[in-house]
Amino acid sequence: MEVLTDLPYRFEAEQVLSRAKAKQKKQHLETVEKLLEQVDGILSPRVLYRTAYIDQKKEKALVIEGLTFTSRILRVNLDPVERVFPYIITCGEAFERFAASREDLLETYFLDEIGNLALGRVQEAFLGFLKDKYLLEEVGRMSPGSLEDWPLEEQRPLFALFGGGRVKELLGVELNEQLMMHPQKSLSGMAFASKTGFKSCRLCPRESCPGRRAPYDEAMLQRYLS
Fold it and tell me: Given 3.40.1010.20, 3.20.20.20, 3.40.109.40, 3.90.76.10, which CATH number is that of 2-225?
C-alpha cells in the first residue's frame, strides 16, 4: 500500500466557473479566486492505492485476494489481466470542515465544484502515474456505484482490500452505514491495464451528469452484458 500526496491538481478560477456553469462575471471570478487562496494548504488531495491480484474469474464475478466482486462489466474488463490497482482518493477532512463552515450559498456551491474538480484532476494524474510506473499502454477504471452493474455495495470488498479500518488510519476516509464515504469529497475505484482506457461513462445513460468524460454508447453496453 502507498499514499501519494504530491499529484498535481491545480486549476484556475475560470475553470471552476466553467464546471459550475456560472457566468464569468467579475464578482464570481473574485469570489472563486478568494476561495482558492483560502483553501490553498487546506485542500490537499491524497491517494491510497495498492496492487492486488485476481484469484478467480467467474461469469459475472471475480475473486481478488479472497474477496468477491460481482459485476459482469468489471469481469469483462479484467479478462485479459491478472493485476489490478484499487484506489481511494480524498480532498481531506480539513477541506470538508472549511466548506461546511461557509454560510454563503454561492460560496458553498463553488467549493463543491472546487472539490469535484480537484478529485477529477488527481484521479487523472494518478492514472498517469500508474502508466509511467508500471509501463502500461492505457489505464481503465471503474468505481462502485457508477454503473447499475457494479453497485455501491461493492465498496465493502474494495475497502476490505486495504484492510478495512486501515483506510481511516492511512487516509482519514471511512464508510458510513449507507456505504457513502466520509469525507464526502472522496472517490474510490479499481484501475487496470486497458487497451482502450475504459471509462464507465461510455456505459452510463444518465444525460445530466456534470462529471461525464465520454459519450454514452448503448451498443457497447449491450456487448458487455451479452
Answer: 3.40.109.40
Identify the bridge partners of residue 3 per DSSP, sorted by sequence position. Answer: 48
CA gap 81, 74 in Å, rounded: 11
DSSP state of 209: -
> Which among 150, 91, 154, 164 has a CA at the least distance from the CA of 123?
91
The CA R_g of the chain, rounded to the nearest whole Å, is 18
**Residue ranges per structural domain of the chain:** 2-225
pLDDT tens by residue, 95-141: 999 999 988 999 999 999 999 999 999 999 999 999 999 999 899 99
| pTM score, whole prediction | 0.87
Task: Kindly give, in sequence order, each residue whose CB lies less than 8 Å from that of residue 18, ignoring residues fewer than 6 positions away.
Answer: none
Nine-digit cell string for 29: 471570478
Nearest Cα to Cα of residue 25 among 16, 17, 37: 17
Bridge partners (DSSP) listed for residue 48: 3, 88
